[in-house]
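Entry type: protein chain
Record version: 2
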Amino acid sequence: MDNYIYELKGTLYLNITNKCGNRCEFCIRSNSDMLVGYDLRLSREPSFEDMKNAIDNYGKPFAEAVFCGYGEPTYNMNTLVKTGEYLKSKGIKVRLNTNGQGKLINDRDIIPELKRSVDEVSVSLNEADRGAYQNLCHPKFGMFTHDEILDFAKGCKEAGLSIRFTVVDIIPNDSIRRCRKIASGMGIPLIVRRHISDNESYK
């Protein structure tokens, strides 16, 4: 049975796709389908009805839900938007963890849809320039993907969404410093995330 939702440190996470246009050097997907006891490999992408049933049957109260599974959530925009709207209608805070490539993935500006379906957007920046990002994350959309990520974050901020950047702490200190400078120049906070190389360390 597919796990469309899972709990991590008291927060409900929403696993709506396994597709991702990146092949990040640090990604835990490379060593397992498991995360803290949950098999997140999907046999199919869930519909909104699948997600609603999973949420309604969860059985425990929760204050925040995060779109973050074993793929890039914006590959399943219809389910993301409808599920986010449903959660917000119940007073649940909704966050999207994304690689910032949603416009390239969907061939349209997705920010108006996100504005009505999520409260916060967390964008994985992970490097400070095109070449370094290409070498670390290997995006399918090519060298200018990094530019798109910055444009997406700028658009989210201008739309009034709560926005933050993240980087993993395995990148060089100089890269982290340069990422901080980019984020500061855009007026967007940046969080340095601890890199976790194995799934069980999330516990």
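Comment: The domain at 5-193 is CATH 3.20.20.70 (TIM Barrel).
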